[in-house]
Amino acid sequence: MTALRTAGEIIAAGLAPEARRDELDAVAARYAVAIPDAMLRLIDPTDPNDPIAKQFIPDGRELVTTPDERADPIGDLSHSPVEGIVHRYPDRVLLKAVHVCPVYCRFCFRREMVGPQGLGTLSAEALDAAIGYIAAHTEIWEVLLTGGDPLILSPRRLGEMMARLADIPHVKVVRFHTRVPVVEPERIDAALIAALKASGKTTYLAVHANHPRELTAEARAACARMVEAGVALISQTVLLKGVNDDPDVLAELMQAFVELRIRPYYLHHPDLAPGTSHFRVSIAEGQALVAGLRGRISGLAQPTYILDIPGGYGKAVIEAASITATGDGCYSVRDFRGNEHRYPPETATE
Length: 350
Ligand code: SF4
Fold this sequence. Notes:
Shape: globular
Number of helices: 11
Order of helices and strands: EHHEHHEEHEHEHHEHEHEHEEEEE
Oligomer: single chain
Strand content: 15-25%
Bound molecules: iron/sulfur cluster
Largest sheet: 9 strands, mixed
Distance between the termini: 73 Å
Number of strands: 14
Strand order of the largest sheet: 3-4-5-6-7-8-9-10-11
Structural class: alpha/beta
Helix content: 25-40%
Radius of gyration: 21 Å
């Protein structure tokens, strides 16, 4: 795989004018840049609002950190008992073996940790300690391999890690979070798929995609290969201003996931990562978009709209409530057209 990584390469590819060189250089000096071929091919350089370009081409606004933004927006570090582990919820941990990605998203919530100047790859000793922590904590039912992007590791290294998790009886589920099926689908070959599975464990893989155009024929084929090999797929999407804050785009994306046997899972409200305010919609706008999906598309295609509470307090569902107590022991329930109904209904009269 090749990828554009510098201002010069981005300008030479026709994705930005020479006049933006200093701006691109300044952002690239601060945050990692990589635009792999598969994403490069999707960008329309004549469209100033191209939703793929917005996700990956550096923007001078990234150098503006607002007072509410923070380097560790979801509080990974405050819940890290040993290097590479985040233990925020009782029954599951994140295992972050690598802090490198095949693509660098301009809105990344871990942008201070990933990339060439990020936290790097766990040493053999640190990985031993992380696996030891999982083995010692019998309440851990699920391990989430994230990062960075765990699928950037070779099948051999992934397979070794999965074999070690397979030896821990209380771990029942291993979940990968990755951009690779979309941004480098050719990597999803038989060897890598075999490495995703561990004897006696169930493997889930969360495919990260934010716009239906990302689901190219190659990405769709990569997902099909995993499903047919017994890997359960779920989706993860970040709600992003100018990329997918549009009911048609969100509906098309969620329906495409279902068609690909990817269960729509989370729609994230964007985190307070530094230099990302230009991507954030308001929570009210997000709630209106999600409410608009109800009734419009199948229940199978509905994502859960969530916010990671800043500071490491975990995720909260933030959809607008469709039911309110009326104070007389009854409720008012809103249907998908926005009409209110009393529950239970008034007793029918003759
Ligand atoms: S793939 Fe994930 S971790 Fe990597 S840059 Fe994008 S959002 Fe961040």
